[in-house]
């Protein structure tokens, strides 16, 4: 990603999205994100330049000329994101990494589709720690659960409408 790139982060209020907004801003991107109305102030506070309330507006109609989409939803959202990418643009998904059909469909349209999976990476983690120390990255924790309540934590996660990340203490 280069400075000035237009980046679309899907689900910007969630665990992955709220970190992605801050990382994209720290690299100088213009960040657009989808979030429901209750999370507008939250994602703007993280640096989002534009917020699309996906419950009222179709992102595929409202957004265009995107260099990079970060997809945290998969399915229809991933597929329809093809329309918002500029030629040569790239969608990176956290949820549909192996979707050969979408990889081929994006390639045929002159765009790229690829997946990421979290791997322990000390060098990258040191970089993130540096951003935290400089105040350029913060992780929002709405709730902390003791290990005995792991099932409750999972139920909260499965709601699909979290703000930030839950913490489990062991
Ligand atoms: N590949 C990897 O290594 C990796 C790592 C971590 C997570 N993941 C995966 O990434 C996905 C996202 O994880 P997460 O922790 O960010 O989830 P999360 O914390 O539950 O957040 C999901 C967010 O999506 C928003 N949302 C729901 N429906 C939406 C829609 N139609 N359009 C736009 N936003 C919508 C919700 O906000 P509203 O309240 O605004 O609806 C919520 O903030 C999960 O499937 C997870 O398994 C993958």
Essential attributes:
170 residues; alpha/beta; Rossmann fold; 2 domains; 6-stranded parallel beta sheet; 8 strands; 22% strand; binds NADP nicotinamide-adenine-dinucleotide phosphate
Brief sketch in words of this structure:
The protein is α/β, with parallel strands linked by helices. It has helices at 15-26, 40-45, 59-62, 75-80, 100-108, 122-133, 150-158, and strands at 6-9, 30-34, 50-52, 66-71, 85-93, 112-115, 144-146, 167-169. It folds into two domains: 6-115, NAD(P)-binding Rossmann-like Domain (Rossmann fold, 3-Layer(aba) Sandwich), CATH 3.40.50.720; 141-170, no CATH class.
Write the layout of secondary structure elements.
Layout: E1 6-9, H1 15-26, E2 30-34, H2 40-45, E3 50-52, H3 59-62, E4 66-71, H4 75-80, E5 85-93, H5 100-108, E6 112-115, H6 122-133, E7 144-146, H7 150-158, E8 167-169
Residues 10-11, 13-17, 34-36, 39, 54, 72-73, 77, 94-95, 116-118, 157, 160-162 line the site of NADP nicotinamide-adenine-dinucleotide phosphate.
């Amino acid at each position: 990603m280069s400075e000035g790139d237009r980046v679309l982060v899907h689900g910007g209020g969630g665990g992955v999205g709220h970190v992605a907004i801050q990382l994209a801003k720290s690299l100088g991107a213009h960040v657009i994100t989808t979030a429901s109305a209750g999370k507008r102030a939250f994602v703007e506070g993280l640096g989002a330049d534009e917020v699309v309330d996906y419950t009222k507006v179709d992102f595929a109609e409202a957004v265009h000329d995107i260099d990079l989409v970060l997809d945290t939803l998969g399915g229809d959202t991933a597929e329809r994101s093809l329309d918002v990418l500029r030629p040569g643009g790239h969608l990176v998904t956290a949820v549909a990494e192996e979707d050969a059909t979408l990889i081929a469909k994006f390639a045929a349209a002159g765009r790229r589709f690829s997946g990421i999976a979290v791997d322990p990476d000390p060098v990258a983690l040191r970089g993130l720690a540096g951003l935290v120390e400089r105040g350029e990255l913060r992780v929002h924790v709405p709730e902390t659960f003791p290990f005995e309540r792991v099932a409750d934590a999972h139920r909260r996660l499965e709601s699909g409408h979290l703000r930030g990340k839950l913490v489990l203490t062991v």
